[in-house]
Every structure is written in C-alpha cells, then in structure tokens.
Amino acid sequence: MNQPLHKAVIPAAGFGTRLFPATKGIKKEFFPLIDQDGLAKPVILIIVEEVIKSGIQEIAIIIQTQDYSLFADFFKNPPPAKFYNKLSRESKKYSDYLQEIGEKITLIPQEQQEGYGHAVYCAKDWVKQEPFLLLLGDHVYRSNIDKSCVHQLVELYQQYQTNVIGLTIIPEDIIHKAGIITGNWLETYLLSITQLVEKPSIDYARDHLHIPNMKPDEFLAIFGMYILQPQIFDYLEDEIKNEQRLKGEFQLTTALDQLAKAQGMLGYLVQGQYFDIGMPLFYRQTMIDFKMGS
C-alpha cells in the first residue's frame, strides 16, 4: 500500500549543556547561521525550511514545556509594530512568510528530558499511524547535488515505501560518538541494513559492523535524517515501559535496530554534508562552512 509522506518531527528539547554559557541565554536551536540566501536565520528555521521545500507540510517540534512561548513567538506571532515598521520591504515579506510557516507547525512538549528516543516518542499521538520524517534539531544540511538532502531521502521512500535512514562515512576514532550501522550493498549509495548499534567500541565495530569494500578504518554512521514507519513507537514504548536505558537515557538506535529486523530498513549514503552545531568548535566551523557548503 502506497503511504504518502505528510509529516516531519524535529526534537528540540535538549538543554544544550555543551554550549553553556551561551545556552543559558538562548536555545541552541536559535543560534544564528547565514543561509544560502544570505539571510541570518536561527538553526531551527533552516531545518524547517528544508522540510517544507521537500513537500512536507506538517511539522511537529518537540520542545521543553517552558520553551513554548519562545517557539510560538518566533513561528506564530508577528513582531511588534514598531519593529515591523523598521524592516525593509523584503524583510516585511519574509516576516509575513514566517507566519505562514507557523501555520504548518505543531509544538509538542516533552515533560521530562529522558533522551532522544523519549523525545521522538512524544510525537506518537500526533504522528498517528503514518510514516514520518525525523530530523535532528541541531543539525543543518547541505547537498552536493541539485536535490536537497531531505529530498533525496523522500524520493527513496516514495520509491521503496519502507524505512529509510541517511548515512555518512566516519573514521573509526569517532564511532564512539555515533550510531553505527552495517548491512549489505544493494546498489551504489544504497544498502539493506542488518544491524544498528549506538556508540559501539572500536573492537565491537571492527568485529561486527565493518562493511566489505570499505577502508578498514571507516564505518557507516547515521546522518541524522530518517523516514520511519509508525511501528517505531511500539518499540520505543516497550523500552520506556521496561526502563531499558542506555547511559541513563532512552535511545532511538536500539528501537531502530528492532524495527529494521522486523520490517526491513534501507540505508542511503546521502550526497551531501551535515553540520552539527551542538558543540562550540562544531558551531564555529559551521558558521564558516555552511553558506558555501564547503
């Protein structure tokens, strides 16, 4: 059965502790970047715009309860008249456009911050029984081809109608910071996933996760972009009910591994680059590289 893709979920409920003290005054999702159009935009807006340009028109942002007014004020409320009247004609048009974007956005509170998997689970009732796009709230993306990174994944989902996650190649010295996958190549850039492991040791990865024909010190890691069937919520719910935590939190990767084994899952080596703004040096480098996509 052909299931169209209507919805996207963006978790943005973290504390941003690695960016303290800046995050004492501003949420990391509102850190500014210069986008391709030359405008200074908060990270969350760049992510939302990429989603909308891919054709998805319903977006849920998972937030901390106390941040509701912050996100609502940005996406759903016009600026004060005195401020609006000082804007250029082009900026006024963009301000009006922001209100249009706000109509597509639902804000969902995460009452307690208990990990990425828990944040995703908060969207269960909103997603209902539909496939959905999932993006990280502190990653922005730049494509190397004429299709955006999100659009590349959306097209694959439309073709195969199954779970699809974006992948990137990373060196083994940083695999302890990422979700790592293994599987079997089906064609260039596309493989059938057989296992996903959150932050494995180098020894485990070498023994169980390395993919033939790749360099010995390189592995496939999760890109931070997923299209998932709603059954992912069943696995997340089981882990939450049974207190199955990893390093004190409910993770997504363990539920993804179960979903892949039950339904099948494709991994796609995204033709593009992700920029992680979640740590000071990464944010600094993103500010330098993002606009040019270098």
UniProtKB/TrEMBL annotation:
GO BP annotations, alphabetical order: UDP-alpha-D-glucose metabolic process
EC number(s) given by UniProt: 2.7.7.9
Record key words, sorted: Nucleotidyltransferase, Transferase
Reaction(s) catalysed (UniProt annotation): alpha-D-glucose 1-phosphate + UTP + H(+) = UDP-alpha-D-glucose + diphosphate
Gene Ontology MF terms in the entry: UTP:glucose-1-phosphate uridylyltransferase activity
Residues in Nucleotidyl transferase domain copies: 7-279
Class of this enzyme: transferase
SUPFAM superfamilies given in the database record: Nucleotide-diphospho-sugar transferases
Family: Belongs to the UDPGP type 2 family.
Matching PANTHER family: UTP--GLUCOSE-1-PHOSPHATE URIDYLYLTRANSFERASE (PTHR43197:SF1)
Protein name: UTP--glucose-1-phosphate uridylyltransferase
Species of the source: Aphanothece hegewaldii CCALA 016
